[in-house]
Amino acid sequence: RRNLTRGPSIEAVSPIANFPNRPPFRFTLRIKTANSVPVDMKNLRIEYVRSQNVDITTRVIPYATSTGIDIIQATAPPGTHHLLISIVDQAGRKGETVFQLKVAEP
After folding, report:
1. What is the DSSP-derived secondary structure letter of residue 60?
2. How far apart are CA 88 and CA 26, in angstroms?
3. Residues 6 or more apart from 58 whose CB is under 8 A from it?
4. How many other CB atoms sit within 10 Å of the CB of residue 90?
5. pTM for the whole thing?
6. Which long-range contacts (CB under 8 A, 24 or more apart) does 19-23 make?
7. 4: pLDDT strictly greater than 70
8. How many angstroms separate the CA atoms of 20 and 13, rounded?
9. How confident is the model at residue 101, as a pLDDT?
């Protein structure tokens, strides 16, 4: 019998998903470790989901710490956007989530 352990989890704090947000808005994600294993920040990846995903990690990394991402004055064009956020812990376990962001006209 295998003993499976979970990887880190990513939880959206703000903005509220599926609610149209007017820019600028606060964008906050919380990273939770599993089994007290620290995350490996060099393996944080944020992608804008579309037919060809766009890696936007370099734009977001200045706002990232081992406990999450916090952008106080985030902006994005109006519309519905999907972000794939993934992180790997130091044991090699991966956690990921897709976050839906709705942006209203300013």
Report:
1. H
2. 24
3. none
4. 12
5. 0.88
6. 19/102, 20/102, 20/103, 20/104, 21/101, 21/102, 21/103, 21/104, 22/103, 22/104, 22/105, 22/106, 23/74, 23/75, 23/76, 23/103, 23/106
7. no
8. 15
9. 92
Q: What is the DSSP string of 10-39?
A: EEEEESPTTS-BPSSEEEEEEEE-BTTBPE
The structure tokens 């990232």 sit at 64
- Round to whole Å and give the CA distance between 43 and 88: 6
Q: Which residues contact 95 (CB under 8 A, 6 or more apart)?
A: 6, 7, 8, 9, 10, 31, 34, 86, 87, 88, 89
Distance, first Cα to last Cα, the chain: 55
* Tokens (6 digits) for 45: 């990846």
